[in-house]
Amino acid sequence: MMTKAKLDKALKTKIPLSFNKDGKYKILFFSDIHCYPGCPTRVLDAMERMVEDKKPDLVLWAGDGPQGCKNRKELVELIAQFSAPMESRGIPWAMTNGNHATRTCYPLTVMQVERVYEKFEHCLNKHVKGIHGYTNYVLPIYSSTSDEKIALNVFSLDTGTDMSDIDNGRFVESDINHDYKLPSLPIGITAHNFDIIRFDQLSWYWDVSAGVEKHYGKAPAIMFTHCCPHEMKIIQENPEETGADGRLEERIRTGPLNSGVFATVLERGDVIGFYFGHNHNNTAEGKYCGIRMGYVGSVGYYGYGMKGATDAEKNRFRGARLLTFDESDIANYTSEYLYNYNYVEHLDS
């Protein structure tokens, strides 16, 4: 069990978050911008207009944001562009790493890039030392009536970039790089070396969640990652039974091994919603074992999946997801997919 001192350190945020006086709270998700320095403005316009229209209390990026920067200065300028809708309005925001994190800024390590994000005034990114990944953190959202009662937790877990170093070299001899490319793999798996959420990350989440319950009372939670858990495939194969709503236009892509993250949050019993990006053409949300799982979409236009498509076709999928919570009934929050085409009329190339 995590000590209370360590728990309070994990719960501390640069900007305290709390439900509004009317008991409402809005979280807006963006993901998969995949934009390089000098990319067209329509992504920025869509984000700007969505933020202005929905006025979220917190904005979360589910990975694969700005990339291709040649130096730190270029990176800072690009992040400043994409965070402007939040920074200019004083809206707290945070991001979790995607599988393209190593491509963000070639001279910098992923950890150095994380430190760049943390320096932005309203960015709530944090880094837990001693476990895998660089964007593992919890953001507690306190009650509108008490700054000592946590009404909702937001957990970010870093799904990493490459799982090849999982071979521990002890009693098991294996060639991970060969085995994850086997021609026949279980449902929901593609032959990529995407990383997985590691056991130490799951242990950290469990300890924080259990610590919150012990010291502050059990609180519901939202979890977000870049790659989805394997169990999202169950929703894809059972859309009617799981109440799936939205598009599943491509095969679900996730790491070769089932990390057990879904089973972990199910047993812990606090996560009511699990959200992710990565699959650019999937926008569906459904419920499995009482937990809502859904894609937050891709707000960017330059990722895979739309090669040769017209702008109109690209616009069919591009968007973001808005969650609206009522403190009196947090588990029954509303979820809305926002399409870019309702916000961006001009389509430059």
Structure commentary:
With 349 residues, the chain is α/β, with parallel strands linked by helices. It has one domain: Purple Acid Phosphatase, chain A, domain 2, CATH 3.60.21.10. The protein has nine helices and twelve strands. The strands form two sheets. Strands 1-5-6-7-8-10-9 form a seven-stranded mixed β-sheet. Strands 4-3-2-11-12 form a five-stranded mixed β-sheet. α2 links the parallel β2 (24-30) and β3. α2 runs parallel beside α3 (72-87) and α6 (199-216) runs parallel beside α8 (261-268). It is globular, with a radius of gyration of 19 Å. 46% of the residues are buried. The mean pLDDT is 89.
Please outline the helices and strands.
Blueprint: H1 4-11, E1 17-18, E2 24-30, H2 42-54, E3 58-61, H3 72-87, E4 93-95, H4 110-118, E5 137-142, E6 150-156, H5 176-179, H6 199-216, E7 221-224, H7 232-237, H8 261-268, E8 271-276, E9 285-288, E10 291-295, H9 311-317, E11 319-326, E12 334-339
Parallel strand pairs: 1-5, 2-3, 3-4, 6-7, 7-8, 8-10
Antiparallel strand pairs: 2-11, 5-6, 9-10, 11-12
Report the uncertain regions: none
- CATH fold descriptor: Purple Acid Phosphatase, chain A, domain 2
Count of DSSP strands: 12
Number of helical regions: 9
Distance between the termini: 53 Å
Count of structural domains: 1
Main sheet characteristics: 7 strands, mixed
The H/E string reads: HEEHEHEHEEHHEHHEEEHEE
- Strand arrangement across the biggest beta sheet: 1-5-6-7-8-10-9
What is the CATH C-level name?
A: Alpha Beta
What's the Cα radius of gyration?
19 Å
Query: Per CATH, which architecture?
Result: 4-Layer Sandwich
Secondary structural class? alpha/beta
The CATH superfamily name is Metallo-dependent phosphatases
Q: Report helical residue fraction.
A: 25-40%
| Global shape | globular
What is the mean pLDDT? 89
Report strand %.
15-25%
